[in-house]
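Reviewers of the previous submission asked for a worked example of the structure-prediction workflow described in the proposal, so we include one complete record here. The input consisted solely of the amino acid sequence. No template or homolog information was supplied to the procedure at any stage.
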Amino acid sequence: MEVVPSLDPGSPRVRFGVEMRRLREAAQLSQAAVASRLGCTQTQVSRLEKATRTPSKSDAERLDRLFGTADGVSFTRLYQRIIAQPGGPVWFRSWAEEIEPTALVLRSWDPLLIPGLLQTESYARHLFSQAPQITPDEVEERVRARMRRQGILDRDNPPLVLVLIDAGVLRRKVGGAEVMREQLSHLVEVTQRPTVYIQIVDPECLTGLLSAFMIAELPNGQPDAVQVDSSAVGQVTTEHDIVTAIWKRYEAIRQWAYPDPMSVKMIEDARQEWT
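From that input alone, the workflow returned the following structure tokens.
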């Protein structure tokens, strides 16, 4: 069952959906007809109208071409307002708003932390609270954005998520023992989902220590996209040479990964140590 978030009727995403439905009905078009023009499914069109799916830049541009900015409505401007909302760094928005929600397969590697898609609220809150000069309101905005991002795991058609985590992450204290117990329990729980696989990587693997990254396999023959973390400004790209290099590094790291059942046992053992 898909989790439907609580929606702010004044938010740009809600207005995007309301205007989309209004113009579609005024043009006497079915959701299926609009879906064919957007290159997506009728279910995705329904979610856009209900504001339970974040539109992509291409969705906005195609809707503007379809409706011709009728009544002064610009879906591209509404999209810009959506991505301008607080909750994360600007460079990451294209990944979180356009790439990740449409991915068929997501592969991730993290040598330092639990990856964002699998973080608990308390774990994420403690991480965000450590940012220099961040305010409590900004922390909460980022936590809410991270929890919304995780909604892709609860969709009717979630992506396949393949996660590699360095073994040291299980014992790196974030927020104290209670936070760590909750976080590791959550990792064990999500491995029960048929679309989530977690493998722990031997700490002697050094090839992945340069940075965390994610690889997205996209539908309709689109090129793979990668997101690479940085202490300052990260990178999101489909550039062939960079994607190929990240794929090679991912495969090299995976050679050091323990099998799924052994990895789950390692997580459970580490959880017992957080007392």
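Residues 90-273 form a domain with the Endonuclease; Chain A fold (CATH 3.30.870). We consider this example representative of the routine output the project will generate in years two and three.
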